[in-house]
Amino acid sequence: MQQYFIKGLPLTTRLVIQDKETIKHMFSVMRLANDEQVVLVFDDGVKRLAQVTNRETYELEILEELAENVELPVDVTIASGFPKGDKLEWIAQKTTELGASSIWGFPADWSVVKWDTKKLAKKKEKLEKIVIGASEQSKRNRLPQVQLFASKSDFLAQFSQFDKILIAYEESAKAGEKSQLAKTLSTLKKGEKILFIFGPEGGLSPEEIKTFQQYGTITLGLGPRILRTETAPLYALSAISYALELDDK
Fold it and tell me: What are the Ribosomal RNA small subunit methyltransferase E methyltransferase domain coordinates in residue numbering (predicted)?
């Protein structure tokens, strides 16, 4: 069944779709007809079953709330040092499907790309559209938030809001570190806020690691193989999902 994210909260059971992009997708692309049913997700993260009552005026009626919740039991923010090309778009799409609650980008020391404020705004807008599509496809209850930081100091200023800050560090993997990720995942508690930091193509500089460690971060390897910047966040989220959602203990 098709799913759509609707801004705001439902005030009554009757709803008129206002967003032009949503209208286009629902009634022009998907050609929804009267009496067809869809799932709507509002800002409260609750899924609601709705039925089209008038496709010409974009009206629907909410039939019932649905109990389904597919969100990770912990709140995971993925922070990537600005990568080259369209890799951040790839990361946004795939980490959304894997359950990230927020997707951040920051100017790492070894980031090759340099985006000014105007380019950051355009990139953020593009990423948000990708996130909506990926959230609808994966039946998420909430839309991940996208944030691109213009400076390292702005990025660092956000650290205090997290319960744990993890850093995927290439040098840890090269040194053969294999246990820290498993140990850390075993200590995660439902509802905790986790920041997981990944470097760009060249990795994170030693100076960055020293700066991050001042905030009580945990550096760890992601297995014996060196992963690309767009692969590492997928590995991390998959590991978190396995540890917290697929373990029946």
Answer: 71-241
